[in-house]
């Protein structure tokens, strides 16, 4: 028997990979499951994406290997996008690297900057892939607390008390997933000062900045941040293109070059028509974002009613495509969501899969129609 690699002993299959098998099995058995657990947009991409994709399918270079650092026109479009929406200047020749989804960027960054035994600051609660990538490269995760009483922001005074000598990298993610918390420029400045003081690479994972958030910000809005920061971004949430796998990492030339060294050994470039589609959507007018936010706002109102029906508390000021809600009794997160699935055929995400500070919370997705959310409310109230 061929044994698995030792590194698989310190990670496990992604929760949604396993749980969705159970949910899909119930659907095959005839259960009318309402899925409010996954952050996969159900809305369509801009029509321009579909038209650009189709139009480029017969281009002479459509089926060839592509450049490892993406089409120049794509990098120019990303640069213009950042300038228009974040008021940030990025050099398209050296400070932008397109990715096949920002999730792969988490692994590329980990491989590019972490050695065995390095430490990484990881938010609790937070996106589980940060810890998985850290473990896969045999670095050490150090979880820092995010708590409601501090508006789900890191307590930098508490972080200063721990031994940071081996910390090489820190993950942040604002607007935050799963809590929906926001971070302003002043706090970003504090974070960057902390990173500079301790010589830590600060990485902001920023895919939710346009969802129910009228004032998107970038970590690069802080002067001098490129020396100590990287930023991941994505078209998945902003333009409803999660299955297309288009993301980007931005930073200074040296850091981007290091990531490209890893990436160029991992893939052979992004499919040409998808790059052309990405160029098209990055030029979308502001009305696109207004339209999407109007839809998500209507859904958010209904999901809050669903949370009310389940006696859960939530923050009215959150951003992103989720509602993070506290269970108002001693029921554990997984117990709560399993009961909801068994009794009402409604699937939501348990908070503890995002870290120990998520215990006692659940996450509702806004990626479902108003009709489905209304149906879920009726099931609870009947």
Full CATH superfamily name of the largest domain:
Type I PLP-dependent aspartate aminotransferase-like (Major domain)
Question: What best-fitting shape do the alpha-carbon axes yield?
Answer: globular
- Total number of helices: 12
The major sheet is characterized as: 7 strands, mixed
Count of strand segments: 13
Q: For the CA atoms, what is the radius of gyration?
A: 21 Å
Order of helices and strands: HEHHEHEHEHEHEEEHHHEEHEEEH
Which blocks of ≥5 consecutive residues have pLDDT under 50? none
The neighbouring-strand order within the major sheet is: 2-8-7-6-5-3-4
Whole-number total of structural domains: 2
Provide the CATH topology of the largest domain: Aspartate Aminotransferase, domain 2
Strand content: 5-15%
CATH class of the largest domain: Alpha Beta
Helix coverage percent: 25-40%
CATH architecture of the largest domain: 3-Layer(aba) Sandwich
- Which structural class matches the secondary elements? alpha/beta
Mean pLDDT: 94
Distance between the terminal alpha carbons, to the nearest Å?
Answer: 53 Å
Protein traits:
382 residues; alpha/beta; Aspartate Aminotransferase, domain 1; Aspartate Aminotransferase, domain 2; seven-stranded mixed β-sheet; 13 strands; 39% helix
Secondary structure layout:
Blueprint: H1 15-28, E1 34-35, H2 47-56, H3 72-86, E2 96-99, H4 102-113, E3 119-124, H5 128-136, E4 140-145, H6 156-159, E5 167-172, H7 185-198, E6 201-205, E7 229-234, E8 247-250, H8 253-263, H9 272-282, H10 286-309, E9 312-314, E10 322-327, H11 333-344, E11 346-347, E12 349-350, E13 361-365, H12 370-381
Parallel strand pairs: 1-11, 3-4, 3-5, 5-6, 6-7
Antiparallel strand pairs: 2-8, 7-8, 9-10, 10-13, 12-13
Helix pairs in contact: 2-9, 3-9, 4-5, 4-8, 10-12
């Amino acid at each position: 028997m061929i044994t698995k690699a030792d590194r698989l002993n310190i990670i496990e299959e992604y929760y949604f990979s396993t749980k969705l098998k159970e949910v899909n099995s119930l659907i095959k058995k005839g259960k009318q499951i309402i899925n409010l657990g996954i952050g996969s947009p159900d809305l369509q991409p801009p029509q321009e994406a579909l038209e650009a994709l189709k139009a480029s399918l017969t281009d002479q270079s459509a089926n060839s290997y592509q450049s490892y650092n993406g089409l120049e026109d794509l990098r120019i479009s990303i640069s213009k996008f950042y300038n228009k929406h974040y008021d940030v200047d990025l050099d398209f020749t050296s400070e932008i690297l397109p990715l096949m989804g920002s999730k792969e960027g988490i692994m590329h960054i980990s491989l590019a900057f972490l050695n065995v035994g390095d430490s990484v600051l990881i938010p609790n609660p937070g996106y589980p892939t940060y810890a998985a990538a850290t473990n896969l490269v045999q670095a050490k995760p150090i979880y820092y607390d995010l708590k409601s009483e501090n508006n789900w922001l890191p307590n930098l005074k508490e972080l200063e008390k721990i031994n940071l000598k081996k910390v090489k990298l820190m993950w942040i993610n604002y607007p935050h997933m799963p809590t929906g918390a926001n971070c302003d420029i002043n706090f970003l400045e504090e974070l960057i000062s902390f990173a500079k003081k301790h010589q830590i690479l600060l990485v902001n994972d920023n895919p939710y900045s346009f969802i129910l958030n009228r004032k998107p910000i970038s970590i690069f809005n802080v002067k001098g941040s490129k020396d100590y920061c990287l930023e991941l971004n994505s078209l998945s949430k902003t333009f409803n293109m999660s299955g297309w796998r288009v993301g980007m990492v931005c930073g200074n030339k040296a850091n981007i070059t290091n990531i490209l060294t890893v990436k160029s050994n991992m893939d052979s470039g992004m499919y040409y028509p998808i790059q052309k589609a990405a160029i098209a959507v990055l030029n979308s007018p502001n009305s696109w974002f207004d339209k999407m936010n109007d839809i998500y706002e209507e859904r958010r109102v209904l999901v809050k009613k669903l949370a009310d029906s389940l006696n859960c508390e939530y923050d009215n000021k959150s951003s992103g495509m989720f509602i993070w809600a506290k269970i108002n009794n001693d029921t554990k997160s997984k117990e709560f969501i399993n009961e909801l699935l068994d009794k009402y055929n409604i699937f939501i995400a348990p908070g503890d899969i995002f870290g120990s500070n998520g215990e006692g919370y659940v996450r509702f997705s806004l990626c479902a129609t108003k009709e489905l959310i209304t149906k879920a409310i009726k099931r609870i109230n009947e």
